[in-house]
Amino acid sequence: MEQKPLKDVSSEPQIVKATISLSGMTCASCVRTIEQALEKTSGVSVPSISVNLLTSNAILEFDKSKTSIEKIKMAICNSGYDVEDTNIKEEMPESNRPSSKNNTINITPTNAEVKSTVTKLSIYGMSCASCVNTIQQTVESLPGVIKANVNLLTSEASVRYNSSKIGARDIIKAIEEIGFEAHLLKKNSFNREGESNIRKRARAEQRKLLRRFILSSFFAVPTFIVAMIFMLALPETNRVRMAFEYQLVPGLEVATLILFILSTPVQFLLGYPFYVKGIRS
C-alpha cells in the first residue's frame, strides 16, 4: 500500500494578531511614519495594519514563520517611537485549533524593564511641539530617568525611571519649575459619568484659553480702533484725531498713552504663562 507524504507544517503560514501599545505619537504624521515602518517589515500583513493616535496603539497581523514580534518592535523603535506593551493572539490552524479559545502570549519584560518604573502624568499648559520638547528634555535630564515620552494630544507624559534614584514627586516638581502643571494620572481613566479624563482635561484647557481670549478681546478691539481708525483712517484735520495726537509731554501723545494702557494687561497679565515658560526654559 502506497504511503501518503506527510504534510509540511512548517511551510504553512502561522498568522498572529498583535496589539502594541506605543508612546511618543503626537500627530497624524507620527501615525503615518509608524505605518510605513510596519509596511516595510517582511511578514507583516499590510491590510491589517491599524495605528490609532488617540489610543496610542497599533493592531496588525503577521506571519510568525517569516518575522517575530521583536523585529516588529525594533522597526517601530528605529522609526523614533517606543513600545510600552505587547499582546499577541496566535491564530492556530483549524486542525490544531482548540474549540473556542485563542492562545494568548504576553511578552515578558526584560531585566532593564523590571528594574525600572513607569509613571503616567497629566500635564496642563502645553500648547505646541516646543512645549513637548521642553518637558521631555527637562525630564530626561534628571538623574535616574531612563526615557520620557510626552503626548501633546492627550496632555499626558509617560516616564520610565529608576525608582531607587528618583521619585514621581521629583519629576512633577521639575515639570512645574519650567512653568507647567503636572499631576499623577489616575489608574481609572473614566469618572462616574463615564467621561474620559482626556476629554475632561481638553475641555478644561479649552475653557481656560477661551476665557483668556475673551478678556484679551476687550483690550484688543479698542486698541485696533484707536491705532487703525482714529490715527490712520481719519483725516489729519479731524478733531478726534487731533485730540489723540495731542502731546501731554514732548514725545508722549494721548493715543500712545492709551495704547500702552490697553496693551499692557494683554502682554503681562493674560500672556504671562508664555513668558513664564520661556524664561524658565
TrEMBL record:
Major place of residence: membrane
One MF annotation (Gene Ontology) recorded for this entry: P-type divalent copper transporter activity
InterPro entries for this protein: Heavy-metal-associated_CS, HMA_Cu_ion-bd, HMA_dom, HMA_dom_sf
PROSITE patterns listed in its UniProt record: HMA_1 (PS01047), HMA_2 (PS50846)
GO BP annotations, alphabetical order: copper ion homeostasis
Location of this chain's protein in the cell: Endomembrane system
Keywords attached to this entry: Copper, Magnesium, Membrane, Metal-binding, Translocase, Transmembrane, Transmembrane helix
Domain HMA intervals: 16-84, 117-183
Higher taxonomy: Eukaryota, Fungi, Fungi incertae sedis, Mucoromycota, Glomeromycotina
Organism whose genome encodes this protein: Acaulospora morrowiae
One Gene Ontology term, aspect cellular component: membrane
CDD domains: HMA (cd00371)
Signal peptide feature range: none
Stored PANTHER family: ATP7, ISOFORM B, COPPER RESISTANCE P-TYPE ATPASE (EUROFUNG)
Transmembrane segments: 209-234, 254-275
Highest taxon of the lineage: Eukaryota
Protein's recorded name: 16419_t:CDS:1
Membrane topology: Multi-pass membrane protein
A Pfam family hit: HMA
Listed SUPFAM superfamilies: HMA, heavy metal-associated domain (SSF55008)
